Amino acid sequence: MKVNLAQLTSHLSRDLAPAYLVAGDEPLLVSDALREIRSAAMRSGFEDREQHVVERGYNWAALEAGTENLSLFSSKRIIELRIPSPRLGVEGGKTIRKMVEHPVPDCLLLIATTKLDRTASQSAWVKCIEHGGVVLQVWPIDRQKLPNWIVQRAKSIGLDMSGAASELLAERIEGNLLAADQELQKLLMLLGKGSVSEKAVVESVASNARFDVFSLMDAMLARDDKRTMRALNVLQDEGASPSLVLWAVSRELFLLARLKAAVLVGDLEVTAMQRNKVWKNRQPLVSRALKRCHMNELIALIKRASHVDNVIKGIAKGNPWNELIGLVIEVLRPTQSQPTDKAHWQAN
């Protein structure tokens, strides 16, 4: 059978299948699902856990033989397989099918792998688990649902987050659930159980150098020269990766270019922002930046960002940080006299 994350707790309260496949590219959610299945198994008397990481050349025959030769006096055991890719090959697929079709008493098979694409979903071993056990596909949290997910996650560890606080943290972690979980744990240690305000989140992320890149982006879009250069200096001094900083700068440039293109063809700015998933509390900042820039300016900046990327990769000569600083200065530079966006857009 197939279940989703929302159905897992209810399913485990009623029954424990002999085999589970948890698949997805969201490490935290996959880990949560595995932990919940293990806990249910432990409540059912499964005392031992045997872990296997399936790599190239993995000995499937040894796994099968070891499982079949379990003593009658052995304790209940979880056989957990970590598989980097759902493409097992002939031998691997055959072994899994045999273990599911002929389950060993007092043995629970628990498999974790990455997202199942259409081909993997139709493979014989996955279909076999779907028929004789449970397949759980873990999907990323939609960006619009992320603040609510953060609120619920916080609640599970005793934190009561305001809507503004969850919105702010969601914006800062950019879909990285592991980062969100780490920040919530940090807030719990700093504040203890109870209410969490937007101010508390700001102070928490401000003390974490990993978030300085977001401060840089906000200052850059606001064309705050001093704050922008200070954030750049902090990142450079603390050994931040030039690739990370370039990724952040490029992301903002491409966002502005998409928004500008949408507005030029007649879309409402607010509609374009919603379609591009710009957080509500960032929309005024982005809107002001959008009104200041021209499409040809953005195209030139994106081309320069591509050059900086080549420098970072060693394809082009130059110092990565010097090139990055030069790019950011270009973003900050006041717009020069140039053709209107409409004329430029039609000309191209």
Give a structural overview.
It is a single chain. The chain contains 18 helices and eight strands. The chain has helices at 5-14, 27-43, 60-68, 89-101, 118-121, 124-132, 146-156, 163-173, 177-191, 198-206, 212-221, 225-237, 242-264, 269-275, 283-292, 295-312, 320-332, 341-347; strands at 2-3, 19-24, 48-53, 77-83, 107-113, 134-138, 159-161, 194-196. The strands form two sheets. It has a six-stranded parallel sheet, with helices on both faces. A two-stranded parallel sheet has the order 7-8. Helix 3 links the parallel strand 3 and strand 4 (77-83). By secondary structure, the chain is an alpha/beta fold. The termini are far apart.
Outline the fold blueprint:
Elements: E1 2-3, H1 5-14, E2 19-24, H2 27-43, E3 48-53, H3 60-68, E4 77-83, H4 89-101, E5 107-113, H5 118-121, H6 124-132, E6 134-138, H7 146-156, E7 159-161, H8 163-173, H9 177-191, E8 194-196, H10 198-206, H11 212-221, H12 225-237, H13 242-264, H14 269-275, H15 283-292, H16 295-312, H17 320-332, H18 341-347
Parallel strand pairs: 1-6, 2-5, 2-6, 3-4, 4-5, 7-8
Helix pairs in contact: 1-2, 3-4, 4-6, 7-8, 8-10, 11-12, 11-13, 12-17, 13-16, 13-17, 16-17
